[in-house]
Specification:
By secondary structure, the chain is mostly helical. Helices cover 86% and strands 0% of the residues. The chain has one domain. Helix 1 packs antiparallel against helix 2, helix 1 runs antiparallel to helix 3 and helix 1 runs antiparallel to helix 4. The termini are close together.
Length: 224
Amino acid sequence: MTSLLELAADLERRDAAVAAEIDRVARLADGAKEIAARADAIDVLLANAPAEHAAMDRAEAESLAHRRAAEVDLAVAVANMKTAGRGVVEAQRDLGHAQDAVRDAVARVDRIACTRATLVKSEGAARADVRQLVAQAQEIAGRLAELSRVSQSGRARPEPTLDGLHTWAARVRAALVVVRGQLDLERDRLVREANELGSVVLGEQLAGSSVELVGQRVRTMLAG
């Protein structure tokens, strides 16, 4: 009886250890996946930034030209007001239109400057985020080195670049898929062993019951 209880307890310990390892592998794989996704987003932002700057350069040049033209029209309208004579109503209308045009042109230039400042800030934040991602990847790599089942290529440290992060994350996720497969097979074997033990002790055919459940039933039966 004692040996059967010890066997059941040993199966439960081994199963718990494998379950903990599976959870650990899953968390490391999720971490690598998140790093890859964030690296992708940064890559897109930095790749699109030059075209966005060029578009803003064109829009800014056009807006400055509109502002200069509006300022010329405003100066003409002001001069006309001084010599309006009986045409003062028309001159006032032209002056109002010219003032509105200048305000609109200035506002467009200001909006472009704000948009550019936001883009520059986003670029700076993205580059800082790359450094943060590299640090996170290095941390995960250190934890991977503690797993005996991980291949040598899966243990390699990431290069401190976006391309390096992409390569590292893909390599790590592939290595962890292999490890997870090994752990799943090992846990399946433990389940089969536990069910075989339970069938002997309980006198009934078991299949698919968890190691923990079988252990509980075996202890209950032998204790009774």
